[in-house]
Design a protein that fits this description.
The chain has about 400 residues and is of the alpha+beta class. About 50% of the residues lie in helices and about 15% in strands.
Length: about 400
């Protein structure tokens, strides 16, 4: 049976419109502000970018049609998100930046009608931003979510939440929080988590300091957040009590793949800049692009780009079929996070001194893509999970053969 890799006409058209919008409208703004969205104006700048994206017809490609989006599935998102990611500001412009993109996806699948009206609709429209509050300082939840320590206990008509989170992307200025808290069991146990929705101005929510990280392109930073006797009603429960870890998988697998899409676009820009540079730069009696060592770096970049797309395609295909795709997304995320960094790093090397200067975008691209090997699960944790599944399958096969 033939494998169909061509895009539907409407997706191809949206991809082309996104490409033109990013290169004509967004890239000049990124360059003017060195990829620092706070320096560009933060939320005010976001609103302006998103209005321009609406006018260009490329806004919210992932959001359900009934909430003003294009309703694209995972496979169809890939080329659009990659073109948006060609600029560090592109995902913000299209309203597909983390964490909002992943939260739109999760709310569309889990929220009840009232929650969709209160939270999903304004988020999809770009009227507000959101934050997903799961990561905690040690010994709390990090790469091991079962260490979740933030606690929600029953109170009159609802729940009382106490805990401390950090590295919460977009927390400063978010309109609402999705809070992961333990409602049963103890830290270290796999179950017992529940997700809660809370407007950011609810008494008991306090946003603390911005953690100073390498990346600069996400509105609202990466912050500490404190929940201090936060009272929320029963209606704030997202989904069902004690099923939070299960619901997190609805978000995490697709969100890892959309990270791959966006940052692959950024890596492609770095590669394009480097190839253009070596095609015209002369040295050692020829153009740099005619030298064997430079050609090897170009070829290795092309291979990493193609391999990342292939793994992404497989993972998105599984997700679109409704499969958990845990292994496929772990494989794609781990390979892509490392390949994307290699692409940008080689591109810097090809450009020599200019590569580490502010005259080209490569240094800031390196700054932005390096954290991907940690965000959404460090490479080492994904490798552990991949190996664990492989060994488990081998053990089951041995038992079946006995």
């Amino acid at each position: 049976m033939a494998i169909e890799l061509s895009l539907p006409p409407e997706v191809h058209e949206l991809t082309e419109r996104t490409r033109d919008f990013i290169r004509e409208r967004v890239l000049p703004l990124e360059d003017a502000h060195d990829g620092d969205i706070a320096a560009a104006g933060g939320d005010r700048f976001r609103v302006e970018l998103q209005q321009a994206a609406r006018e260009a017809g490329v806004f919210a490609p992932h959001a359900p049609v009934e909430y003003g989006g294009h309703g694209l599935g995972m496979s169809d998102r890939a080329p659009v998100f990659e073109e948006a990611g060609y600029s560090l500001f592109g995902p913000t412009a299209l309203n597909i930046a983390a964490p909002d993109e992943g939260n739109v996806h999760m709310l569309a699948h889990i929220a009840n009608p009232e929650q969709k009206q209160q939270y999903l609709a304004p988020l999809a429209h770009g009227d507000v931003r959101s934050a997903f509050a799961m990561t905690e300082p040690a010994p709390g939840a990090g790469s091991d979510p079962s260490a979740l320590a933030t606690r929600a206990v029953r109170a009159d008509g609802g729940w009382r939440i106490n805990g401390r989170k950090w590295f919460i992307t977009g927390a400063d200025g978010a309109g609402f929080f999705i809070i992961m808290a333990r409602t049963s069991g103890e830290p270290g146990q796999r179950g017992g988590a529940t997700m809660f929705l809370a407007p950011a101005d609810t008494p008991g929510i306090r946003v603390g300091r911005h953690l100073d990280t390498l990346d600069r392109s996400m509105v609202g930073g990466h912050c500490e957040v404190f929940f201090e006797d936060l009272l929320v009603p029963d209606a704030a429960v997202l989904g069902e009590v004690d099923r939070g870890f299960e619901y997190a998988q609805v978000r995490l697998g697709p969100a890892r793949m959309t990270h791959v899409m966006r940052w692959l676009g950024a890596a492609r820009r770095g590669h394009d800049v480097a190839v253009a540079h070596v095609a015209r730069r002369e040295g050692f009696g020829s153009r740099l692009g005619d030298l064997g060592m430079v050609q090897k770096m170009i070829a290795d970049n092309e291979i990493d780009i193609a391999a990342t797309r292939a793994l992404l395609t497989r993972a998105c295909w599984e997700l679109d079929r409704g499969e958990p795709a845990a292994n496929a997304t772990s494989i794609a995320k781990t390979f892509a996070a490392e390949a994307i960094f290699r692409i940008v790093d080689r591109s810097m090397q090809m450009c020599g001194g200019l590569g580490v200067s502010g005259d080209l975008p490569l240094a800031r691209l390196s700054r932005e893509v390096r954290p991907f090997r940690i965000y959404d699960g460090p490479s080492e944790v994904h490798r552990w999970a991949i190996a664990k599944r492989a060994v488990g399958a081998a053990k089951r096969a041995l038992r079946d053969a006995e």
